Amino acid sequence: MTATTDIPTFEAARRRPGERRRSRIILTLLLSLFLVYSFVPLVYLVLSATKTNGDLFTTFGFGFGTNFNLWQNLSDLLARDNGIFMRWMFNSVLYSTAAGLGAAIFATAAGYAFAKFKFVGRKLLFALVLGAVMIPQTALVVPIFLLLALSGLSDNPLGVILPSMISPIGVYLMRVYIDQGVDDELLDAARLDGAGEFVIFRAIVLRLVAPGMVTVALLSFVGTWNNYFLPLIVLRSQAYQPITVGLATWYQLAQQGGGGGQVLFSIIITGALVSIIPVIVVFLLLQRFWQGGLTAGAIK
Amino acid sequence: MTKIFNPLGRMMQRRDFLKVAGASVAVAALPATVRGAEPVKVVLWSWVPDLQLQVDMFNAAHPGIRVELVNAGQGKPEYQAVRAGLQAGSGLPDVVQIEYQLLETFRQVDAFADIGPYANAHKGEFPEGLWTQVAKSDVVNGMPQDYGPMAMLYHKDIFDKHGITPPITWAEFADAGKKIHAADPNVFITDAPFGANADWVLGLLWPMGWKPVSRDGDKLAININDKIAKDFAAYWQDLITAGIVETKPGFNNEWYTGLDSGRYATWLAAGWGPLFLTSVAKTSVGKWRAADLPQWDASKFATGAWGGSALAVMKTTQHLPEAAEVAIWLNTNPEATKLYTTKQNFFPCTNALLSSPQWAGDKPDFFGGQEVNKVFAKSASAVAPFEWSPFQDFLYQSMSDEFGASLGGKGTLSDAFDRIQDAVVAYAKEQGFTVV
Amino acid sequence: MAMSNSPAAATRPARWGGFTSRKLAPYLFLAPFVLLFIAFIVAPLVYAFYMSLYRDTLVGGRHFAGAASYIKVAGDAKFWGGVWNLVLFGIVQVPIMLGLALLFAIVLDRGQVYAKGVFRLGFFLPYAVPSVISTIIWGYLYGPNFGPFTQIAKAFNLPPPDFLSPGAMIFSLANIVTWEYVGYNMVIYYAALMAIPSDLAEAARMDGASPWQFARLIQLPLLWPAILLTIIFSINGTLQLFNEPYLMRALAGNTINSSYTPNLYAYSLATQNQQYGYAAAVSFVLGIVIAGASYIFTLITNRRRPEQ
Lengths: 300, 436, 308
Known about the structure:
B: alpha/beta, D-Maltodextrin-Binding Protein, domain 2, 5-stranded mixed β-sheet, C: two-stranded antiparallel sheet, 3% strand
């Protein structure tokens, strides 16, 4: 049987077509309202990216400026500080991809252990994993820096990548996912056939939980992409910084007049817009994994 | 590119660039043997944009030293990194950019080396008031890089419309404000960002002779809510209560627009202000002028400073002579320092530049051809010495918090000074100082 | 929480496979995650706890202080004022954010709308905008003098709304956080919904259940662990609120002070007051508050959770 949750069919069976269409239209309108809300700030971002610095402060936010300056802003952005922007983009892509992949694999392995094995300390460890998130990051700022300095990882990209691979919510999601989505009988059957635990994990579990893994990967990717605090502490060299820290550096130039204050808003806004594009691409690439949906039924 | 980032692009001297580029190429072309042994590496943390230009000049002129420039963040993030490095005992640079106002705070944790033996020879090249910011008698902790003596920038069109001449005294400033606001309720004489920009507030208290914290060893005299502060608070409280000034935080879209559109008739600004304003106020070109900071006593001209930073040498450096040379050369070499005023838009620190016809005689269109730099140069010579506290960031934080609370309805500015006094005294005691 | 483990699997004797024994396997599967967890979360936490037992002073340096910092936090009005701010914040913001996320996830999962791909991407996009940038954008929109809402209000001769006033600030921040995180939570629910076996839908249809009944009786109970988790994470995220007020401070300095939220307070203590030990103590007490709040919440809801 093909694996689809296929609730549209469920709907179709219950309702007459006219009724269905009407409820569709109402729901679509309802969601559109929120979509407008989601987009309002983004529209401002897009329009702002087409303006000169001067127009940014003097023209209406939801209209175009006196000049269409997008291409100039882009070329300024790419030229600024010897083109460091592209380097930051590259760093962000690297860190986020590594963190997304790592988080997905490690969280799946850990979630699998929690879901399908009984072992000493299981409950305690799981509680610890979720509980540790409750200690604020700010408490860890100075300790992390000191520990990284001791281990020689300060100003080293690994100091950003490795911590970003820890996703407690990913472990949780994968535990639930494997619990509900992977049948014990299937695992046992594989064991009876003589398959090793690692083979079972790779050949059966990983395939069944792809949508869950994709979700964890996506959340970790975006989380790392947006992370500001950690790279700020860990990385010194501009060449290692991700896009958030880089843009914030430029932003701060305007915040403090002294020390060569410069207002680089048009570049920062343009940079912010460009920096969202990879996230959109990743989202679009990954969401196709959701299309089929996953069900326990698929395994039966 | 320069026309966007360097609003006074025409000030940029093309030949500066060529000279720098030429020198770098010339040295790079020398065979390694001529340049001598492995050069000493000096790590420099600075957030100054395009400082690499000056660093390249330095490296070209010093074959034995190679400066590695790192931007560790502007202000707070950099200080955070320095403090973490001090705790860890590693990961620190050799030379670091620190604002004048925080030099004493870092001195307190013994962060800096004394570069006096190298730097004292250059004392005479800087205005006296400025040198006292980086030196205590013969102990020198930093070399001045840029400066922010205060003056007033104003909308001439607004003043003209209401028949006002630039106020000489604060009393006249208040009168002008009342007159303008009465005629046009959407115009305010200025924006006074008490809750957000404590360093600005301090810059205005400075010429009054305010001595919030004076120290003698580990003994501190804390006089934050003295008569001076109370007079100052009463004056501004009147303006705020009368509604003729706003108290919105500075340095954001609203504020830029407020300056540009003439919501605020003046900006009580610092030396870096004219070029900064030029980059944000695009529609008011030619309408602005500069005048002296209003005075409490017109017979005794006094000003304060707002912003500016120095290059200091960290105590942990393994290469003190080389690091000192970096800090000194980058701030005294005529070519390098001149480039600050043309490329980085800094307010100059050296007497030579302050009096140079090219800088002082500049007549930007933005200010209707007025020689604005001269106004600020005059201010620079009238900046009195100021004693920074050994925990300046705590003082600033208390100021912002308490001024903000007062403006949000918790008493007056005068009450705020009392609360700051209490908070700072408590903090100082907790930190092991003896409060006298 | 609703997580079962097959007893049959657990009682089966250990087998050797190509990789390793059944007994050792869970530890090996856990190893990469746990190692990172220890290195980058547990170790700094232990270190931070150690620091919290010391007091740093500008004169005299560091000395052992025992529980003194914790006793001080207990009576620190600035700390508890920040906690109170966030309790108010959370009561308003968390239900709205999670309610919307849940609604969107269910509606999109069923495909009851046109162009569902557009909605899914559109709702998620705000999460892709770094909070530094979103706060700059919202800050502009909130502008009391020149922001677009003010301009619109002025055009209609209405009094302009002041989003940055002391009374409105908490709602303005709640709005930014809601905007940023509805999509995030939606994706978590969406993923959990996809784990619900399709035969359940089939069975429900056979039994003649309406979509509403299906959602209430089947989907909600199965989603409950995910909902509980997002609530706990939201309580956690709320009480740790930092980025948005930190950046908003540049626009509303008279409203947001250095102890507006507990995390902002801890940050100021560590980075400006140089009170590292006290900052660590504040963070730990905040952690305890969060854990306590989450625990109480779990107790309450477990008693009246939807039937499975």
